[in-house]
Amino acid sequence: MTMDRRALLSSGLLLGAAAFAASACKGQAASSAVAQAATFKLSDAEWRKRLSPAAYNVLRQAGTERAGSSPLDAEERKGTYACAGCDLPLYKSSTKFHSGTGWPSFWAPIPNAVVVSNDSTLGMDRTAVSCRQCAGHLGHVFDDGPPPTGKRYCMNGVALRFHAA
Q1: What kind and span of H or E run contains 106?
Q2: Which of 15, 17, 55, 128 could bond to 51 as cystine, CB 3.0-4.6 Å?
Q3: 154 catalytic, yes or no?
Q4: Catalytic residue among 86, 131, 134, 154
């Protein structure tokens, strides 16, 4: 049996959520997290119908958009950046900064909005960032960001949706 990276990540997220729920026993927050993760378990055909081809490539196939192609990199308004796949709020505009990389960058996500995993594709060791709710690939996080975290969450703009405040 072969399993692609997206399926592996999705199954890992669901197993992790189930383990968290089991350890919390009666915790309503834990069972809510499991329910939310299951909410966005869509078929490939449903994802293709729901997303643009570019968003599908990034969110479901761990692709990368071309640097400088997203208008969200230059977005200056106050608001929230949500997942383009499931609309879960991921980043607040107050954590956004201009990294000069050509992709929207943030120094911290909203608590419990994203999950990280090891990514050794392309012969590099990186840390991939995915939406906690739908497991959509968002981008990568690096240790060269500004204070207070020193992190640079380098996100694909096509994987995000901006909601002005």
Answers
A1: strand 105-106
A2: 55
A3: yes
A4: 154
